[in-house]
User: What shape does this take?
Amino acid sequence: MALRALCEYLEFDGHFDIVGTASDGLSVVEQVELLRPELAVLDLSMPRISGLEAAERIRELFPEMRLIVFSELDDPLLKVECKQRGADGYVRKNRMPEELLDQVYELFPDHRKR
Assistant: This one.
């Protein structure tokens, strides 16, 4: 339900198209390989492999792809680790969806509403 709400929020903004979703880390990597989106938003805590492991795999395959990890955890060291392992951004769940949208606009400034 949270995934659907997040997708609807981003699509409602009018500047984004959701091309795929996945419920676990390995499926995210598979979807990215198949669909080649500009951005993948990864939950830190996913079944099969974590968002960090998925970010590393995706970064190896597609260095130009943008990756944002989100989590419930408020740990500055985790944010640093996400960057070190390939993520372009980190958002806490209690700051979603607004902070996510802000980070997406930082990565894709041409998508910003005018």
Q: What stands out?
A: Residues 2-12 form the longest helix (11 residues).
